[in-house]
Amino acid sequence: MKVADMCCPPPGVEEWISTFYVASIYFDSGAVSFPKSQINDLFCESCAFAKATRLPFSKAIPMMATRPGEVFHTDIGVIPIVSFRGYRYFIDFVDEYTRYVFTFLMRKCDEVYHVYEDLRRKVRDKIKYIYTVVSEYDDEIKRVQSDNDKEYEKLARIIVKYGTRFRFTQVYTPQQTGMAERRICMVM
């Protein structure tokens, strides 16, 4: 019997799974010794594939923002139950410098641009409040980073007129917008 037969049983055969676990504990304890030529045959391709993971991202990702309101990470979440007023989606904007979160409710996903206008207005008001002592300050958002949702494509084309750069993350790497992704998980 091969190891692949034990750990990848045919459907409905549950005894093989328990036999495999007992056998692996028995083999791992050193109670059974195999000649080196037979150890190479103990490989299960599906087990190796199931245990495969991505390489971890660096824990020390350099912060790009040098002041509040400069860089935002954003993501859209779905509300499982439609609210009383008809809201089905929400969008989070996380300030990279302060980790302050702006959350807006949306009825449709194509309201992203209007929500961005609200965010821009609120950020300008907050920055004016923070920098009342400083005579010169820049109150525009410099960069917005998000995943590759199609709702952001139109927004990326429009916000150029404000001098804001839009950065999409690489496909299948939610770690690059980790701040916004974690906020979505906290809300849900």
Automatic annotation (TrEMBL):
Lineage start: Eukaryota, Sar, Stramenopiles, Oomycota, Peronosporomycetes
Annotated InterPro entries: Integrase_cat-core (IPR001584), Retrotran_Ty1/copia-like (IPR039537), RNaseH-like_sf (IPR012337), RNaseH_sf (IPR036397)
Source organism superkingdom: Eukaryota
Gene3D superfamilies recorded: Ribonuclease H-like superfamily/Ribonuclease H
The protein, known as: Integrase catalytic domain-containing protein
Natural source organism: Phytophthora fragariae
Molecular-function GO terms, alphabetical: nucleic acid binding
Domain Integrase catalytic: residue ranges: 64-188
Gene Ontology biological process: DNA integration
